[in-house]
Amino acid sequence: MLVDVSVVAFYLNTRVALGQAIAGEMDVLSLEAVVFNLAVFGAAVLVAPAARRAGDRAGVQILAATGVRELEGEVGRLVKAVGRVVAVELPEDIADIEGYDPVGDDVKAELAGKTLIFPRRLTVEELRERVVTRLKDDYDVGYVDVELADDGTATYLALGSRTAGIGPTLPPGTAAVAVRADPPNAAGPGDLVQVWRPRTDEQPAERVATAEIRATHEDTVTLSLDEYDARNLAGGDYRLLTLPYEPGADRQFASLLRAADETMVVVTVAAGSALDGTAVETVEGTVVAVRGDAGVDAIPSASRVLAAGDTLYVVARPDVARRVDAAAAVAEESDDESPSQ
Predict the structure, then answer these.
(1) Rounded to the nearest 5°, which phi and psi values hold at 265?
(2) Bridge partners of 158?
(3) pTM exceeds 0.85
(4) First to last CA, the chain
(5) Which of 11-20, 171-180, 188-197 shows the lowest mean pLDDT across its residues?
């Protein structure tokens, strides 16, 4: 409406200016000029709504003729908001993220029912990221799984704490133990060492194990090694000999995964589930391996078809991992549904 009236005003001003400049006969306040100007403005006001509806109808017809049924790409759903801000009210019931240490009950009690304020004009995904960042920064939460409706309402919230220590990077069958030792010069976490028992009057020096250094503090060294050897080493004095060694890919992957927001989940495709018969590319997250009847397929092809019984190793955020787990399971039918004829 504003653009429409502006065009009319520009036309009338130009007409008046040209009339005065060229003919010198234009009287702006004459009855004829005033009536003409008012009539033009009135016609513009009446025509604008009809023109808008006609333009919308024409746009829909053009999109329908070209076969376009939906918009994709950069167009995001804007959160429906009233006022100058978006208020996100957290649910009273806060769940725990499976596979992560739970947050403290005091944190859950503080967040239950709390209302968070954010600026308007955010898409649903942008608002979700803002909520996740706020909870992590202000409440020292490690992982957040939250679902938001189009109006910004939090329909689901689960929290997990970031695991401390070295537990997540210990392979199965291994353990960590602290011993008294003088680590070699420049030896640090990730270095492979031989553990030697010093020579005594009763027995010569003896190599007792091979381990990996995880941490050092003065004469105390934390070693990762076989679980059986760890029991024998606890509480002793030893000498360490550094070996030429490059950290394995599994160690580097575990370290990177521990520092990231994503985690690895393992799901099994059930018969009749949403993933049964679909390609790997349809799975949310990153599928790093598939275990099937033919063995393990690392970094599977995107076109590989999944079958019932396949085990997927997926790297994804907690919320995505929850959706993948739901897609791999068979949806339970409600009791009030009647069987199909």
Answers:
(1) -120, 155
(2) 95, 145
(3) no
(4) 57
(5) 11-20
